[in-house]
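Lab channel / #folding
Pinned by the channel admin:
"Please post every new chain as: sequence first, then the structure tokens as a reply. Keep commentary short and put observations after the output so the thread stays searchable."

First post following the new format, from NK:
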Amino acid sequence: MLLFRTRLWLVIALLCSSLLAATARAEEPPLQQDMPVEDRSSPMRIKASIRGFFEVLTQLSGEELPIAVRREIAGEADNYLQGYRYLARDEQLYLQLYFDREAVQERIARELSGGVEDDVVVTAQPVLLWLGVTQGDLEALLTEGAQGLLPNTLQEVAQALGQPLVLPADDSLARGDVQVEQLRRGNVEPVLRASSHYGMEQVLMGSLSLVEGDQWSATWQIPGAGRQWRSQTATLDAVLDEGLRGYLQLTRAAVLPEGRGYGISDDQVAVSVTGVSNMDDHLWLRQSLATLLGKDKVRAVVVGRGSVLFAVNAAADVAAVQRQLAQLNRISLIPAQFAQSGESQSADLNYMLH
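Reply from TO:
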């Protein structure tokens, strides 16, 4: 009897391992890269992500992609990053990075072919923004941990323009890397010095001031480039929009996204899913939508804060997409009136993952 149970257990184990292997072959895992880091700070994470992405590009393309091209693409690491975690091995702290395999391979293929396909939305390189805010006698440096109307409005404007933003780490306040007064005076030296710790080439500095009521004004500068401009007195979103548009116009000749923002065109269906808490959730969601709607028809345009916003090529047929997604028992449709701010309000369909 014991021998029979042992054999039965072995058969079950072999079947399970075969199923797991088949699943692994069916679902392309993300590209993983482990990078040694000194601490868990944001500047260290950003630098490690860029270095790690450069190594991934080198592993996949070898010397086919010129090193200058690989360095340029590596600066866009956050656009391809699906997740990360920290782990310790032999008393060394590592940042384990997960990159979107399919998106990276497509980018390499486009670069090697020497062109960009018509249906590809080109995303700008992230810019490190040093923004000093003055409101009466109060002043502060805007950092990544800030909450409230200002940071939310800033992110919404940036996403609508297709310009990823990186804000200074919260510990910049304690260190006093950059002072609001320095930003107001346009002093670029401390900004360039502090920016060097982030390993980012694209940097923007600005000084935002509340004039009265809901009217704001701002001055902007690209440090080291001698480019300066001013946002006329207006509402907060208009002032921020003018500042970021000025940066885009001065740094790249590109057509800004039209329609609802996030690079979603009017003939696509925008699907927002909240409750995405880890890498397994993200991979399951992406694979499920690709299976139901078509691998070439689904594209993730915004990932973060526990949610993912997808653009679906469906000839603007929202009802058809909703019928197909009804087959997934792990997501529930959220009525439009309960949609949250940001990307959820730009979506045609909102779901909760459970």
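NK: The radius of gyration is 23 Å.
TO: also worth noting, The longest strand covers residues 203-212.
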